[in-house]
Every structure is written in C-alpha cells, then in structure tokens.
Amino acid sequence: MDPFETLAPLVAAATVRIHPPPTGYAEGEPPPPRGSGFFVAPEWVLTCAHVALGGDGGREGRREVGLTFRGVDRPVAGRVEWAEPEEPPPGGGFWPAPDLALVRLLDPPPPGPEGPGCVWLTERTARVFTREEVAFFGFAEVAGSFVDMSGRCTIKGQMGADGLLRLGNEDEFPAGVSGGPLVDLERGEVIGVLKARRDGRDGGLATSVVQLRRLPDAVGPVGALADDGYQRVVHAHDTLHAERHRDVDSGETTWTDAQIELSVGVPGALSPGQRVELLGLLADLPPPVSTKRLGELVAELRGRPYEGTLPAPRGWRDGLGLLYDLRRGVTELEAVLHYALRAATDERPFPGSARAEERLLDWVRRLAAQAPGLPRRVRIGLREEQDERLRHRAALLRRRPRPEPPWDMEWELLDLPAERADGVDAHALLEITPHGWERGRYDWRVCVVRGDGQLTAIAEDSRAVGPGDPPGPLRAALAEAFRRGDEPRSPVPLHVAVPYSLLGFPVERWRLTHDGPTLGERRPVVVRCTDPAPGAEDSEEMRALRLDRWTELHMGRMTPDILDCHAGCARSLPKQTELIGRDQATVPVLCRTPASGGEPAALHRVMASGYNVILWRREIAERDPECEDFHQGVAGAVGGAGQAGRLPAALWRLREAAAGGSDEAGWSAQLALLYADPRVPPLGEDDFLEAP
C-alpha cells in the first residue's frame, strides 16, 4: 500500500488553519487563514513564526490567533507562547530561521474521534532525514475558497546551519501550506515545518522539528514539569501516543498502527509498538537533570559526544533518537536497553514516581528476556548495572546539599566552585571581532569548549550591527551553548574574547530575553583580550612570568592591589618595572576610569606587565562616586574566594545577590574580571576550532 494513503488521514486530522484572532467577526465568515499548523500535543500547535505573528508581528501584545481544525468550524482562540524570531525582519521579507512558533489553545479541543489528531514527531537528531519521498500538508486558495492540500517532494539537502531543509520542486508550494507538517513517508513521522517557496527560486524550504528544542529553558530550578516548556510539550506528546496505543477498545487507527503497517524498524531495533511504549514510560519520569548530563549519558553509549550545530538533546526521547544507526560494535537494542535502565535510575531535578521507575525497569527486563539474539552476558550486565546505579543514587540522596549562606555571612563560608589550574575549564566562548574598515559592524562566533580543550562551533555571523543589544541569532547561539554546559546551580561560565577596544563593553549586562536577568546575574562572565600587546609579542621572560603568576594565583594565594586610587583620590599607576616586580600573588585592581581621573590606557599597561587576572571598575551611568564600598568589597571578594579559579563564580554570586536587592553586594555591578589563561593560544593563532 502507498504510505501516503496510510498516513494522509492521520496528518489531515492534526493539521490546522491559522487565522487572525477570533474577535470582531462573531457573525459571517471568518477572515482568510494566514497559513497552516499542526497539533504536536493536546492543546499545542506548531507553526511558522511568520504565520502565527502575521502582519503585525505580534507587537503591542497582540499574540493571539484563531484556529480551525477537525471538529471546529469557527476559529477558537490560541496564544503564541513562543516564537523565534519574535518580530518580522527589518523592512519585511524573508524571516530567518528557525521561523517557528508554538501556539497553546486557550480552550481544550474536543476529545475523542471528533476532535483533532496529533502528529508523531521524530525523535531523531539529523540534518537531512531521508532521501526518499516526503509529503506536505496544509491548505490552498482555489477560486476564492480555501481547500485542504497535500503534495509530495524530496529533500534535496540543507541550507545553512539552522536546520533548514531544501525541498525539490516536484510539486507546488502555495502560500497557505506555510506552517504545515513535512512527513517522512518511509518512517511515518513528522520531520519538519514547511516555510513554503524559496524566494525567487524553485522548490521550497522547511525547518527541522529538532528546532523545537530552542524553546526557552526554565528561568530557575526545575521543580515541576510545567517549569520547562519543552519538557511539558514532549511529555504530553509521548503520553498521548502511548495511551492511544494501549487503548484496545478504540477503533481509531493510530500513528503506531500506521508505522507497523509501514514496517518501520530494523532487525535488532525496537518495533513501533515497543518504541511508543518506551517513550510513554520515559515521559512518566522527571526530565534529565540537565542537557549536559543527558549528553554525557548518551555519549558513553554511542562512543562519541554530540557535536552538531542543531540544538542538543534536552529530553529522554531526544537521547533515544541518538542511539539509532550506531557506528560501533554495540547493537541498537543493547544500547537502548542500557539507556532505558540509566534513565530509570538517574538523578532527578525533582522527585519522581517510584512506580514509574519500576515500570520502566520491568520493561527493560521483559524486553531483554524476550530478545532471542541478546547474549546472556548482556542480561547479567544490565542487572548488575541496575544494582550499582541504585546504590550510587541512594548514597547521593543521603548526602544533604550544603545550604547556601545568606549574604550577611562571611565570604569564607561561601562554597564556590573552583576552576582548574591544571587543564582547560569547560566554558562557553563568545568571540567578537569589530570591522576596522566598517564602523558599527562586527563578526561574532559562539563555541562550546569541553574540558579536554576541544571546541565545537555553535553558530557565527558577520556584519552584525553594534555591538549593542545582542541580535536574535546571537542570543539563540548563547542559549544553546549555555544549555549544553549548565547544571543545576552550576552554570557554565561565559568567556568573552574581544579586542582591547571593546574591553569596556559590558557584555555581562546583556539579556537573552527582554525581561530576563542579565548574563552576569545568571552565570560567571569573564573577558579575554585578543590583542593584549598590539605589534609586539611577549618575551620568553614575560611569558614565563605570566605562567608563574597564573599558577600561583590558582594555588590559593591572592593579594588584591588597588593601583590607581588611595583614600578616595585618584593616583598614577606604578611604573612598568614596578608592576612587573610585584609579588606573583598580586591581583591588580583598577578603581578609576578616564571619566573619574584614571589613565585611558591603564588596563593595557597592566596586561602588558604580565597579568592575566585583573579586576577593574567599569564606567557606568549609576557609578557610586564614593570608593570605600568598592575597595572593601573587592578585598572581601578576593580574600573570600581564596584562589583565582573561584573569582569568576564569586562575581556571579555577587551580581546575583545585587540583583536580588542585597545592599552589601550592590557595588559589584561595577566590577569586571579579565581572566585569560596564558596556556591557551590567542584565537586565530592556531586552527583549533573543530568543524561541526
């Protein structure tokens, strides 16, 4: 049977039309739809941002849309809960990737066979999913009427690094299909969202559904499923499909039925029924503690880390999708069984159900016992691993976390994470390079740096305007880099590599969302200078001095030295010979800026004297003219941190406290930290960027 005929009714039942908000047209025909969309979970519709936000771009709070679908003839209200980008590009035209929006119905849709369906979203992480024929669904205008439409095409490749799929021109793509689902006919799953025709070219474009992982992270600790929008949606998706598969009394054809008919699956892998059952069991668990922890778990089973530019796996279903088509000597079934066992016995961001864990472990035992080709040693190994992981988790739970002291206690009581002195610390890296020949333009690149020093590029762009507020693509790249490295209460540091001319630019005051906290309030932010000595290189003696100081400061001895201010009055910097001769445990501190009596090139002079850990006071509008609080605060921070590796975290905690209203930490809003490992070559000297 033609797979299109098998899947078309299921897709059509889940496809919706997106209208303007359902207000002002209670009588008569509703206004024409803007485009299409489709249910990815009960009450949740995925579409394109340019469809959901329409002509007004959702400005002035107008983020409601109307939706019609199976069982509903009059538009019902839905709210755009997330869109990226959030507004049209300047001057109109092509909306940049990912061009996605998630709409939540304000009233529940009709249940049962009379209501809408829900598509099956692929759990695979891929750039180009298939070279076989794919199908698209939506609507088109014909002779003044709007009718359902579908068609077939092929994926010709990709465009850019943002998950855009380039479609062939085997069929037409009218405007109404924008936002509709793109379906892999071979595997019976939705893999993309149609963006419609390529501007002025043949064929069309679609956005990979993997980009749904760009949904914002929870602002604070995840204490319930509702705190993380992505986990909430995929939980509802997988729970629904598992329930429909278990419901033997219903006469409805399910997506699992269709996948069975299409013979989805390979020898040694899961059948469609086993897969939907597993995903339903995984959905009953709390989500992974962090994307980083999930990545480490999957990397151990795959034999390699995830290094793609597409968003990294965030949920249990995403990790499962990475275990298909393994390239090492482990069968897919064996890897899946180990993965399910580890998910059932992993740490939790919030308490889970013991019954849910036991059901998943029972599924592992049953499948392992029934698999005819699975060696007995694997079943024994699974049992031993389960016992060991449960013992390990019980031991962790017995260790109560150290309570965080209030900010009126001594600095020495703060439990600050320390960066390593004997290796490269994992961090997110932002490199900004201004155009010397084009004022107000700059290039940027965001990378993830692993603990072994290897870099993976997340995204880059050229000729951005600024630097001022970060553009949307840069905010998205930073969010992805942070997501891959963050753990609860242990956010990955951000290292900002800029030329000397931009050291005064306060990147720590950037925000990833308009109403969210600043970067400096959410994580350690430090700067590195990409041209500390223009036109000259360190001598062997100076390089040795830098390395010795770096080692000394990371051994736990630091002495703050305020160089340009004394008793509230500005003073000249010491001569370079004096700076070079300072004790190796010295942390130079600059209190003054040019506007308050400081030397314009003070920071450069200090860097050139062999210092790679420097604290300085920024020139900001709300600067306190008095210096006493700043001097005392810096002395307390440096002394309390104890060693240089704790200074980045110390500044983060101070800024966080200041944002929370702490008077004692208010002075820290003016503080910046240069923290540049002298063992790492300056960017551009070596080819040390890893191609994704």
Derived from helix and strand composition plus strand pairing, the structural class reads alpha+beta
* Envelope shape: globular
- Our estimate of the beta-strand percent is 15-25%
Rg result:
28 Å
- The order of strands across the largest sheet is 1-2-3-6-5-4
Between the first and last Cα atoms, what is the distance in angstroms? 39 Å
The biggest sheet amounts to: 6 strands, antiparallel, barrel
How does this model look, in words?
There is one protein chain. This protein is an alpha+beta fold. Helix content is 29%, strand content 22%. Strands 1-2-3-6-5-4 form a 6-stranded antiparallel beta barrel. A 6-stranded antiparallel β-barrel has the order 7-8-9-12-11-10. A 6-stranded mixed sheet has the order 17-16-13-14-15-24. Strand 7 and strand 8 form a beta hairpin. The two termini are 39 Å apart.
Please summarize what this structure is.
By secondary structure, the chain is α+β, with helices and mostly antiparallel strands. Helix content is 29%, strand content 22%.
Jot down its keywords.
692 residues; alpha+beta; 6-stranded antiparallel β-barrel; 6-stranded antiparallel beta barrel; 24 strands; 29% helix; disordered C terminus
